[in-house]
Amino acid sequence: MTGDMAAPARDMTAPGPVPVVLAGARGHGRWHLANLRRLQDRGRVRLAGVCELEPLTAGELAGAGFHDEELPAQSDDFGALLDSTGARTAVICTPIQTHTGLALTAAARGVHLLLEKPPAATWADHARMTAGVEGAGVACQVGFQSFGSHALPAIRDLVRTGAIGNVTGIGAAGAWVRDEAYFRRAPWAGRRRLGSTDVVDGVLTNPLAHAVATALDLACRGRAEDLRSIETELFRAHDIEADDTSGVRITTTGGLPVTVAVTLCAEQAGEPYVIVHGERGRITFWYKQDRVLVQRAGHGPEETVHGRTDLLENLVDHLERGTPLLAPPASTGAFMRVVEAVRTAPEPAPLPAGAWETRYDGPGGGARRVVPGIDALVASGAESLALFSELGAPWARVSEAATP
Fold this sequence. Notes:
By secondary structure, this protein is an alpha/beta fold. Helices cover 26% and strands 24% of the residues. It is built from ten helices and 20 strands. Strand 14 and strand 15 (291-296) form a beta hairpin.
C-alpha cells in the first residue's frame, strides 16, 4: 500500500453518513468490514473505499453485505483513494510496521483515524505519529476495543470508593491457543523485524496486547510518564523470531506493580483477564466478555456484565458531537513503552525441546506447540504478580530490567 503526503483541501463538515476508507480488509480487517456494514445500516458511516494490495472480490464484499449498488472504490494507493473518495475517516488495519506511515498520510489530508493496535512498532514511530495527528488537528482513536467497555469506569468507581481497599497491584493473564499455521499467515507474522524494519509481533505486543493495555489503563490511565521501570521475560516455543510465551512487570512511579503473563502455547484456550488486587479484596475483569467479578471482605461475590461502546462509533460521535475519545494515542503511551522494552530486549529465548510438545488439535487438526503447565503458570503470574523465573519455571531465566 502506498500513500504520499499531499494534502488537498476537503470539506470535513459535510452532512450525512461519514465516508470511510478501510485500509486492510482481510484477516482482522474482515471484522472491521462487518462493523462498517453494521454502522452503514444505521446511517452513521458509508464505506467509500477499500485499500488492499489485491482488490476484494465481489464474493468477499457480498459476504460482508456489500452488493453491486453500493460497492466501494478500491485501490492499493491509500493517499489516492482518500483523495478520490473524499473520505473523512480512515480505518487502518494493516501490518504493524505500516501504521505510522499510513496514519501520517491520512493526517496530512485532514482525515480522522481509527488505527488498529499496536499503534506503532517503535516508541519513536508512535511519537512521530502522535505529533503528526496533533499537528494536523485530526482525531485519532487506537483500536484497543476493551477501552470501550463500560466495565472500566465501573471498576474505577469501585476502586475510588474503597470497595477493595488500597490497590496493591494489578495482574493480567492470557492463555491462548495458536497453531503453527498462525505464524505463516503473513510475512511479518511472528517476526521482530523484517530486514531493518521493526515489526515486534510478539504475544505481549500484538495478540494479547489488550491484556497489557487494559492493565495499564487501570493502573495509570495508560500514561507513559507514569512508568518507572519495565522488566521483561521473553520466550518462544515456536520456531519464530518473536516471543510466544512471556511475562512483563511494569512498576509505576507510584510504586504499583503491574504484571502480565501470557502465552500462545496454552494447554487449553482460556478467556484473558485482569485482576485488580486490593488490601480487602479483588476485582477480576474478563475484558473480552465485559464481565466483572468483585470479591471483598464481608460481602458475597458480585458478578456483573457491562455494555460496550464501539470505537468507530465513538470516533463518529466525537466528530459530530465532541464526545471524548475512548482510546486516544496518549492513553496508549504506557503500552508503547512496553512495546519499546520488548523491542530492545534481548532476543526471546527458545525453550528447550523438553519444555514443549507438539499436539495436533489446532484448527483443522493443525500442529501446535504446547508448554505443559503453562496455563497454571500464567494464572499464578496474575495472582502473585511474579514473573516466570520467580515462579520456578525450569526454563525461565532471571528477568532483565529496562527503564523507560
